[in-house]
Amino acid sequence: MVNVDLPYIEKNKSRHGTVRYYLRIDGKRVCRLPDDMASEEFARAYWKARGEHKPATPAAIEDNAAPKLSAMVRPNTFRWLCLEYMKSNAFQALDKTTRDRRRTIMEGMWVEPLDDATKLIADIPLSVMGIKHIEALRDRKRDAPFAADERLKVLRQIFDTKREGKLITANIARSVEPFRVHSDGHHTITSAEIAQFIDHHGPKSKAVLAMSLMMFAGFRVSDLALIGPQHRRGDTLKLRLFKNRNRTPVDIEIAIHPILEAVLAMHPVTGMTYLQTEFGKAFSVKGLGNRVADWFRQAGLPHCTAHSVRKGLATDQAHNSATDTQLEAMFGWRDGKTSKIYTRNADRARLARQAVSAISWDGVGTKLIAAD
User: Fold this and answer.
1) Which of the four pLDDT bands, split at 50, 70 and 90, describes residue 62?
2) Which of the two ends of the chain, N or C, has the fewest CB atoms closer than 10 A to its terminal CB?
3) DSSP state for residue 170 in the 8-state scheme
4) Beta-carbon neighbour count of residue 60 at 10 Å?
């Protein structure tokens, strides 16, 4: 969640890539705004809502003073346990982006009031913190169930913090059930949508270079930002995947598809990465992620993401008889569960087609199409 240029605007991107805008004043979400920030409709809605909901003045804030986060951390409180977790090896071993995201979630919980609104969650003693408090923290995100489950996941990690090999306090968060929203997750891109993307941007564009690397190598954005000529060994690309590189590193070796070879040949290499900014610099992971999202929106595909292409590639390969082992080698999957999602669905489709071809009914079906 980040602020954009206009004041009091909250930009929220869902896991499906949909970007929503809200007016947020004095820490409260006032209303949702139109999706196109550049439109006249957006401007009218924004200024109308601003006129109806003015920020509180300093005097009003003083009169309705909410509890403030203390500069001093009280021992054996919820905030103290969070800080102990952030010092732990389990937290420090995470990627920086994951650490930053979890810290943001924790800090958001600290400033939430208890039911009586005179104290903050941060200061609640561990000795009195119970399952009802965990459920309350989860349920405050009920309108965004994925965020609620992510909050509960972080709480479970916090209460798993150990000192000298023993839990600091009982992990009450593991007694609380997540919402477990059922979803297929990111959209799976289709060949027609890829064609639409290529037609919009042009075969020699930077956008299509990125698409080609995703289509024929299955790269996540984090790997797409780093991949370059130094990873090439003849007709293969060898690299250590960015995800989990500090905890459970995975090295992969991918043969360069002839079409990808032809696309790479159209783009002279001028640096250590195939994809570079307009200033000849490598993209940051976040910067490239934003750029890829922009490319999809510009092509009229706002529901697509880089992960949509990764899913589309795995689906295409599975339907063309790729095995679990082959998918695991290419995508760097380790537990076998992910590859089976794609091969199982492909096997079902093949078996269903074979089953239909075996329908006989002793030939009686021919009567259905017999001539009058």
Assistant:
1) very low
2) C
3) -
4) 12
